Amino acid sequence: MTNKPSTTYPAMARALARRQKHATCNHPSPATQAIQAQLPTQQAQRKVSPKTPARTLSVFTRQWAALMTAGIPVMQAFDLLQQSVVGSAVTQKAFAQILQTIKTDVQAGDSLHTAFQKHPRTFNSLYCSLLQAGESAGILDTLLCRLADTLEAQHAMQSKLQNALIYPACILGVACLVVSVIMVWVVPIFQEVFLNMGATLPSPTQSLINISTFIQDWGAWALVASLSIVAFSFKLYKNSPSFRLQLATFWLKLPVLGLLLQSHFTAQWAQTLSSLLHAGIPILEAVGPAAAASGSAPLQGNASELRRLLQEGTGLSHAMSKSNLFSNMMVQMCSIGEETGSLAKLLDDAAQLMVADFHQRIAHGTTLIEPVLMVFLGGAIGSILIALYLPIFNLGQVF
């Protein structure tokens, strides 16, 4: 049986043409396949990847620096680093995926810092700038060691600050819980006893009962309103740079906490700027990443003004003195560094002094706040108990 040409069957010819066209659309060229394969991975990473904890990033950088110093190639180092990520299971999985994506991009021809720049939630401008400087100068292992030192110092300061704030927050939380239990469940019992007695209540006791009644009637609504305000403020903090700047400025103006935060932020700024200058990055390009790495909204907002003054020929110390964000000691050390040509070293020395001052303030604050919180907690509970038992004392005096 002979096969007739397709021209004899127009319908078959059209169906065959449509099938060939469909097959061509479903099987794109290899280059198109490579691009389509990379897009979902990059989009998924940008959308769902969580922010990497500081400890995970600092440990990764230290391990990478050790492998580079030992002469391990970059691709082989990434294979080893993917297996030694520290943190929770979610962090380990997400960070390993990021490393795999970076490895794929580098193998595809991207430079190392370009591949890292595609993950800004994990690797900030400081990280990418030092990688670029290390690649260009051929001293990647040296700069990775310095970057690891900077990240570890910043992580240590952040942990110290968090630990210092956790203790008073826990004490205040327990105090609020105890007072709430007394006001909601204990005071009504005494109120019923006082009503049965029919005696005139002293003003402290009556005020306490009025507060307890208000909490029972409106406490749930007040809690919902407070949580709503906190949620709205958190969302506004994430989406509004101006709100972040105003809130950070408010914290810096507080008597004790403001000085503590200023020492913390300026020390991180000086450490970062010193690392960038040591890497050979021009100061005009280093100011922005240093401000971003400091974590301070006022310093980040002042970065453009600082860069403008530097472009006009103003010295760094003079530009810093106009912002009122830096201590006199840091400004003077920067001035000496500019005059002697050792700005990077003097910035590092200033950062070390600020870190020492930060730790000293933390120690003094922790020592001072413990007795203050104990007195506050004891005074609050004692005042409530005295107000509750005052009518009973008065009744005993009558008899």
Describe the protein in words.
It is a single chain. The protein is mainly alpha-helical. It has two domains: 37-123, no CATH class; 153-399, Receptor-associated Protein, CATH 1.20.81. Helices cover 83% and strands 0% of the residues. The protein has helices at residues 10-26, 30-48, 54-69, 74-82, 89-107, 112-117, 125-137, 140-197, 203-239, 241-252, 257-278, 283-294, 297-311, 316-321, 328-340, 343-398. The model is unreliable at 1-48 (pLDDT under 50).
Count of distinct structural domains: 2
Order of helices and strands: HHHHHHHHHHHHHHHH
Radius of gyration: 32 Å
Instruction: Tell me the strand percentage band.
Output: under 5%
As residue ranges, the low-confidence spans are 1-48
Task: Tell me the number of helical segments per DSSP (H or I, 4 or more residues long).
Answer: 16
Report the principal-axis shape: elongated
What separation lies between the terminal Cα atoms?
127 Å
The CATH topology label of the largest domain is Receptor-associated Protein
For the residues shown, what is the average pLDDT? 81
Structural class computed from helices and strand pairing = mainly alpha
Can you tell me the CATH architecture of the largest domain? Answer: Up-down Bundle
CATH homologous superfamily assignment of the largest domain: Type II secretion system (T2SS), domain F
The residue fraction in helices comes out at: over 70%
Main beta sheet: none
Q: Report the CATH C-level class of the largest domain.
A: Mainly Alpha
The total count of strands amounts to 0
